[in-house]
Sequence to fold (183 residues):
Amino acid sequence: METTRLILRQWKNSDLPAYAEMCADPDVMKYFPAVQTVADSYVQANRGRDYIEAHGWGFWAVELKSTGEFIGFVGLHAQEANCGIPNAPFVEIGWRLRAESWGHGYASEAASLALDYAFTQLDVDEVYSFTAIPNERSKRVMERIGMADTGQLFNHPKVVHGHRMECHCLFKITKEQWGNHSV
Fold:
């Protein structure tokens, strides 16, 4: 899938080193429990690739059209019932970009395309997103793409109890709200 400046696509083996470098960056991982090892990053990227292979959609690799450079991922993921996140099951939208790619509107641009896919191709009625409470940058992206804070806070089930990034907020957009929103 493409926007004016970006390509959202299946992961390539050549993305893995750049992804590992990104996930080892303390700035990129500031609102996650920890930076990731190279091995963990490769496992995560390959899990993303397998998910897309199985479902036809997922957390797509994002590439700059102008340079072909991998800059991160943006996409969709199905959160299952009983996953420990309020309102599940649902389709989640999420992103992670290299720090050098911040501030250019890439996350909002790619996320808007992913939302369009969720509402027109998957025909879901609503899409959710969540982040650690202090992550204002991600919350601003959620707001730019038309999402609203549900007011539901929760302790992320995959974050160690008591960790400073344990508490998360939950945002949502409905198909109707998306149809009335412009980025």
